[in-house]
Design brief:
Rossmann fold; Dihydrodipicolinate Reductase, domain 2; 10 helices; 14 strands; 6-stranded parallel beta sheet; 2 domains
């Protein structure tokens, strides 16, 4: 099978974990890294034994050995960077949230289709062995008809004034943690949206500190998600059906859950090696099959996620 060669744009915290997962993947290697700072690129390459470190994105995009580019710069830079990479005829895997508006998502997927290039939003959760098994059980109606979903991913931190994580433009819990819960909700709902309600407490600069959104889908599934950078919370997903439910702690990375059917509880446990490697194996498989979209994290899901993020943002921080 063909080796899939990755280029890394934006050597931040999450990129370190991504590179280590690529090393564990089937058929994936990291070919190069690029930053707007040669020093940062060199340090990242040295730490992970990457042969090439570029001082600009364009230099990496001109490397003929790079098959796919992993984008992990700031959220508000994703849209322009995606288009830059696609225009360089490279496939794209871009960190969540992929973009910040529905129109941006539509334009990105239209460009990828026009160029016959693969584009996917990087979201590890749907590919975890545990979540794959839960999705399969739900499709088999093991808890009956889906009725309600509740997710929470919150943490409390103290950021220095001016830190990008609490800037209105690209910070806050909505951009930082809500994507996991919203992705789970969108994948399970598999339905158009009827209505969205949201509320949040804000920092002085209008970035959200902690908040909640409620989504009502056309199929009558109702879901809520909590997000925060300034709140200690129980971080779980509850998935309720007409005959039972799942409780999943730290649902974006866990390997066990509780399943309750007819008032009888059982513990589910599925071995997980590395929480990011399954997503990477899926991307590698898509490229080896010459696909331009994932059959799991496809354009419909990412466009809906962008719409949700855009709409919730307008509701809580106009």
């Amino acid at each position: 099978m063909k080796t899939i060669r990755y280029g890394i744009l934006g050597p931040g915290y999450i990129a370190h974990r991504f590179v280590e997962a690529v090393k564990l993947s089937e058929y994936g290697i990291v070919e190069a890294v690029a930053s707007t700072s040669q020093k940062r690129a060199d340090e990242f390459a040295s730490r992970h034994n990457i042969q090439k470190a570029y001082e600009s994105y364009s230099a990496l995009l001109n490397d003929p050995l790079v098959d796919i580019v992993y984008i992990s710069n700031r959220h508000d830079d994703h849209f322009d960077t995606i288009l830059q990479v696609l225009n360089s005829n490279k496939h794209v895997l871009v960190e969540k949230p992929m973009v910040l508006t529905k129109q941006q998502a539509i334009e990105c997927f239209q460009m990828a289709k026009k160029k016959n290039l693969f584009l996917m939003e990087a979201q590890k959760m749907p590919f975890l062995p545990l979540m794959s098994e839960i999705f399969k059980q739900i499709r088999n109606n093991e808890i009956g008809e889906l009725r309600f979903i509740e997710t929470s991913f919150c943490y409390a931190d103290r950021f220095e004034e001016g830190h990008w994580m609490i800037s209105k433009q690209h910070g806050g819990g909505l951009y930082g943690t809500a994507s996991y819960g919203l992705t789970l909700i969108a994948l399970l709902a598999n339905s158009p949206i009827r209505s969205i309600h949201a509320a949040a407490a804000l920092y002085d600069n209008q970035a959200d500190r902690y908040g909640v959104a409620t989504i009502h889908f056309e199929n009558d599934l109702i879901a809520t998600t909590r997000f925060a950078t300034d709140l200690v919370s129980e971080n779980k997903a509850y998935i309720y059906g007409s005959n039972g439910y799942y409780i999943i702690e730290d649902f974006w990375k866990n390997d066990h859950a509780t399943k309750v059917v007819n008032h009888t509880a059982e513990t589910m446990s599925v071995k997980t090696e590395n929480d990011m490697v399954y997503e990477i194996n899926h991307v590698n498989e898509c490229l080896q099959k010459n696909l331009i979209e994932s059959w799991i994290m496809d354009s419909t899901i990412s466009i809906q996620l962008a719409y949700l993020i855009e709409t919730i943002k307008k509701r809580v921080s106009p």
